[in-house]
Specification:
By secondary structure, the chain is mainly beta. It contains three helices and 17 strands. It is 11% helix and 51% strand. The protein starts with a helix and ends with a strand.
Length: 347
Amino acid sequence: MKKSLIALAVVSAFAAGAANAEVRIYGNLDVGIGSAVADNDNSNGFFTNNLSTSELGFMSSYELGNTGLTSHLQLGGQIAGNSGGTTGTGPGAYSLNRHKLVGISGDFGRVDAGTRLNPAFAFWGSTFAMGGNSVAVNGQFAAGVLNTWVPNTVTYSSPNLNGLTAQVMYGFNGAGNAVPAAPTVPDNDQTFTSGAIAYSTGPLRVGVSYQNHDDPADTIGNTTTVVGGTYDIGALRLSANYMDADVDAIDGADNVTMSAGARYAVTSQVAVGGTYMSHDSGASLVNLQAHYAPVPQTTFYAMVSIVENDNIENANDLQYRTFWGESTQVAAGDDDSGFTVGVVQRF
């Protein structure tokens, strides 16, 4: 009898947990075609990830009884829309190279442990009126700063306190995931600290972010500060940001990136805009975009990009890509321009 009661209690507990659980599969695919011209060298091709990153992931959450707390799990990885594989792997492969975390949330905010998006990079991306991979990721990758997905971390995200939000991350030993490339063997002496604070009131959103990637070998470490924000005037959104980085590998060299941009909502489904970005080496990027989103899950886009990389003379002189979907950066000293059309489908 006692065994029967125990079995019934276990089954009831699992049933209650299942009823309380929310599990979601999510995904995103960005594909397009386009053409680029670099110093009279034409290149026509199939692009992926020009606007957003193609990925597949899983999320779940569980309410922890009457405690007011919720536990979270998220696993996600990038997929290549042109091969079915992932970055750095063969076709058909899939790797959990993005979110790998567990967390708990409540009135106090949220705490996550595992691999998570760097708060400093997330803030940088939010300061563009018309951004996406070919703008935000392009800029930080070219500058060799702002780590993206950082492993071995604990992250605290605050609740919204009258428009004020904050996020702090600490990465333990081997928290490498450097930009532009992680070390072959993570150095267990590496540590990573990152944070962002933002304030929103009415049409204004401003903030600042900071990261320090401490690498004792002085090969991939960097300290980076970002200041930026957006301001809405009716259907028009204006943006500006400033990124100042100190990279160990080019100690003492200036590494400053600035941008300004705008986005205008023609209708609730159509938007146009662009970004001008420049680096103190003289390199610059002009990116113009038009979006049509008939439903929230689908966005058709057209993009024009003009890159000038003439002044490549010093170690800190960066090189912008025309589009993020290009496999390599523009060659040193090259100017480039291109046009692409694509579609992003989400579920």
